[in-house]
Design goal:
This protein is of the alpha+beta class and 104 residues long. The protein has a single domain, classed as Alpha-Beta Plaits, CATH 3.30.70.930. Strands 2-3-1-4 form a 4-stranded antiparallel beta sheet, with helices on one face. β2 and β3 form a beta hairpin. α1 packs antiparallel against α2.
């Protein structure tokens, strides 16, 4: 697996409570079987670029199906040969903190 993306998308025309719409997108991500982490501000997904792009496309299509306006941000970090990056990137920072390297 070589790309980790952070995806955030929601409809702008459905009022303040959009968790049901977001849950539909997260359901698509879960059904993909790709490693992912849900956060309060988006979902990180790891996989090969084509697989991840297909999941993003499916999430967008589901959101756009009943919305007139969709807001989406997408960040990507591609690295050749990486595997398990969702866990290892966080673990690397936690190790530095535990070693006292996180002080200002």
């Amino acid at each position: 697996m070589s790309v980790i993306i952070e995806l955030s998308l929601f409809p702008l025309d459905k009022g303040q409570g959009v968790s049901g719409h977001v849950a539909r997108a997260v359901g698509i991500i879960r059904q993909s079987g790709l490693p992912h982490v849900l956060t309060p501000m988006g979902t990180c997904i790891e996989g090969e670029w084509d697989e991840v792009r297909d999941v993003v496309d499916a999430c967008f299509a589901a959101m756009a199906a009943d919305s007139d306006r969709v807001y989406m941000t997408l960040k990507a970090d591609w690295r050749r040969g990486r595997s398990g990056g969702l866990a290892s990137k966080v673990a690397a920072v936690e190790e530095k903190l535990a070693a006292g390297e996180g002080g200002a």
